[in-house]
């Protein structure tokens, strides 16, 4: 076997390995995003029950409940982009957090068994979403590294692969909870 033929075979194997690695990373990102989508759908299905349960008690926070319902409707629209899903997720997470804090201000509501069950279920879903976000962000980081690092960046460019967006925590959720303020209210 001639040297140029061996070099061509080795180069071909390297190209195939790089191509397969990029495709694998892209599919991993899509697969994990689909699992996040499933968890988000579960959350969106719980929202009407939560809103119905607490709306009677929370006349003061009516605008908050309407906002959550509106965001849920937007999230359930077909063909929204991954970017829009990530943005809506951040808004809904913030709004649901506000509802949970507001529920604490209504002793009758807080003691209601249905509301307590919904809170527990939402907390479980939020934990699952959080775990799925971590897995997604790791997969996106691996994918983004692969499409930006040499030599796979050349092949990624040929395949029109672009950076993917990660889930980030909104600035409002980065602030520490003021426990002293919670006990004084």
What is the first-to-last residue Cα distance? Answer: 82 Å
Q: How much strand content do the residues show?
A: under 5%
Estimate the mean pLDDT confidence: 84
* Pattern of helices and strands: HHHHHHHH
* Overall outline: elongated
Poorly predicted parts = none
Kindly name the structural category. mainly alpha
**What does the largest sheet look like?**
none
Number of helices: 8
Mind explaining what this structure looks like?
The protein is an all-alpha fold. It has 8 helices and no strands. It has helices at residues 3-55, 62-75, 82-103, 107-111, 113-148, 152-158, 171-174, 179-184. Helix 1 runs antiparallel to helix 5. The longest helix has 53 residues, at 3-55. The N and C termini lie far apart (82 Å). The model has no long low-confidence stretch (mean pLDDT 84).
Can I get a quick summary?
The protein has helices spanning 3-55, 62-75, 82-103, 107-111, 113-148, 152-158, 171-174, 179-184. With 185 residues, it is mainly alpha-helical.
Pick out its properties.
single chain; 185 residues; mainly alpha; 79% helix
Topology of this protein?
Elements: H1 3-55, H2 62-75, H3 82-103, H4 107-111, H5 113-148, H6 152-158, H7 171-174, H8 179-184
Helix pairs in contact: 1-2, 1-3, 1-5, 2-3
């Amino acid at each position: 076997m001639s040297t140029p033929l061996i070099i061509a075979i080795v180069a071909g194997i390297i190209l195939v390995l790089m191509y397969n690695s990029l495709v694998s990373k892209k599919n991993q990102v899509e697969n994990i995003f689909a699992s996040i989508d499933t968890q988000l759908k579960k959350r969106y299905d719980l929202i009407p029950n939560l809103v119905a349960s607490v709306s009677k008690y929370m006349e003061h926070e009516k605008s908050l409940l309407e906002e959550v319902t509106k965001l849920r409707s937007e999230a359930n629209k077909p063909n929204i982009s991954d970017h829009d899903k990530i943005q809506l997720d951040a808004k809904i997470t913030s709004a649901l957090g506000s509802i949970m804090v507001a529920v604490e201000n209504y002793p009758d509501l807080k003691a209601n068994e249905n509301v307590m069950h919904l809170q527990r279920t939402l907390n479980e879903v939020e934990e699952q979403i959080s775990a799925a976000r971590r897995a997604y962000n790791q997969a996106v980081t691996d994918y983004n590294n692969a499409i930006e690092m040499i030599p796979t960046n050349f092949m990624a460019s040929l395949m029109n692969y672009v950076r993917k967006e990660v889930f980030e925590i909104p600035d409002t959720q980065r602030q520490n909870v003021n426990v002293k303020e919670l006990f004084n209210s």
